[in-house]
Each structure stands twice: as C-alpha cells, then as structure tokens.
Amino acid sequence: MAARSKDKQDNILKFIRGFTDDHDYGPTIREIVDGCDLSSTSVANYNLNGLEKAGFIRRNKEVARGIELLEPGGRRPRVVQVPVYGTIAAGAPIEVPGDAQPEEYIEVGPEHLRGLENVFALRVKGDSMVDDGIFDGDTVILQAAQTADDGDTVAAWLPGLEATTLKRFYREGERVRLQPRNTRLSPIYVDAGDVQVQAKLIASISPA
C-alpha cells in the first residue's frame, strides 16, 4: 500500500511539474485527477496531503490553483492577487474597487485575467446560473463596467428591487431582460432606466 501511494505521489508530482512548466500556473484538483488517471478527487487530495507533509508542495485550499511547488528547482506559479468585495446576492449595490476595503484577497492564475484592469471578485450565493457552470459557493471574477452587450453576464443593481443579481443581459426595447441560466427560474424584466450594470463576468472559479 505504501509503495502504491508513493508511486501515485511521484506521478502527481511529475504531473504538477509538467503542468506548471507548460502553463506558468498550477493545476486544479480536477486536472490532477484527469491527468493522473485517478479515481476521485478524494484520492487526489489524500496524495496531495502526503506531498505537502513531505515538503514537496504547499497548498492554499481556498484557491482553485493554489498548489505551489517547494522542491529545489521548483518555482512558484505566477498568480495575481484579486480583491474580494463580498457576495453577489445582496440587498445593496456591490462595492466596486475604490468604494470599500476588500474582505480578503484571492490568488488567481493569469489565464483568468487576460491583462484586464479594474478586476475584482464576489462570492456567489444561489443557483440561478448553474447552466453556465456557476454554482453556489463559487467565486466570480468581474471587471467593473457600466455598459454591457446583449448576452453578457453582468452584475446588475436593481434599485426598484433593492437587489444585486448575476444574470445574462438583454435589451428588449424600453426594458431589459435579466436571464437566469437555470431552467427552473424565470427572467427578470425591468425598465431600462431601472437597471445599473456594475460589472461584467470574466470567469468563475469553483472551490478547490
């Protein structure tokens, strides 16, 4: 059993090295499962814990790509600190960069940012966007914006409802349709003057 565990850990460590060299950031748990032909994320986590205990890696479990190589010759994945300003389902406008102190910072890989500025993050509460792969507990990376194109996923403040929501944005004459991506939920229709786009979605990150 110990020998098989060591073989798995050696294989995982080799995969992490290669992935980091190729992408300049570390893999997610799911990428390790797929890349190392493991049976489950639990198996991956067990062996990653072994590698961490042995001093080969360091993990930040709050970040999807939070695996850092510590072995000689290893290098730290290039990541960017993004401020988290709260939760997307809230009874007040979201706090965009410059309006408040962030609650925390998360590290994200450069593939999520693509050189964009005015980027921040919010935690997702609710299941209105599950068909787009955005689930309760995920973190969404957003770019501050005041306008959007049809089909963009936006964080919008609705003064009349005193609510902030994450939805697909569509103009329909003098009104706006905010479309959930969950077949169980109905769209929200508001007058165009009663919706304020505050940010556009860049990426969604699931917990590690």
Structure description:
The protein has 208 residues and is of the alpha+beta class. It has 2 domains: 2-69, Arc Repressor Mutant, subunit A; 80-205, Umud Fragment, subunit A. The protein has 3 helices and 11 strands; from the N terminus they run αααβββββββββββ.
Put the structure in a nutshell.
The chain is of the alpha+beta class and 208 residues long. It has 3 helices and 11 strands; from the N terminus they run αααβββββββββββ. It folds into 2 domains: 2-69, Arc Repressor Mutant, subunit A, CATH 1.10.10; 80-205, Umud Fragment, subunit A, CATH 2.10.109.
Rough outline: elongated
CATH class descriptor name of the largest domain: Mainly Beta
Can you name the CATH architecture of the largest domain?
Ribbon
Q: Runs with pLDDT <50, length 5+?
A: none
What's the number of extended β-strand segments?
11
In the CATH hierarchy, the third-tier topology of the largest domain is known as: Umud Fragment, subunit A
Number of domains: 2
Strand fraction equals 25-35%
Subunit arrangement of the protein: single chain
Quote the average pLDDT.
84
Order of helices and strands: HHHEEEEEEEEEEE
Q: In the CATH hierarchy, what is the superfamily of the largest domain?
A: Umud Fragment, subunit A
Number of helices: 3
Structural class: alpha+beta
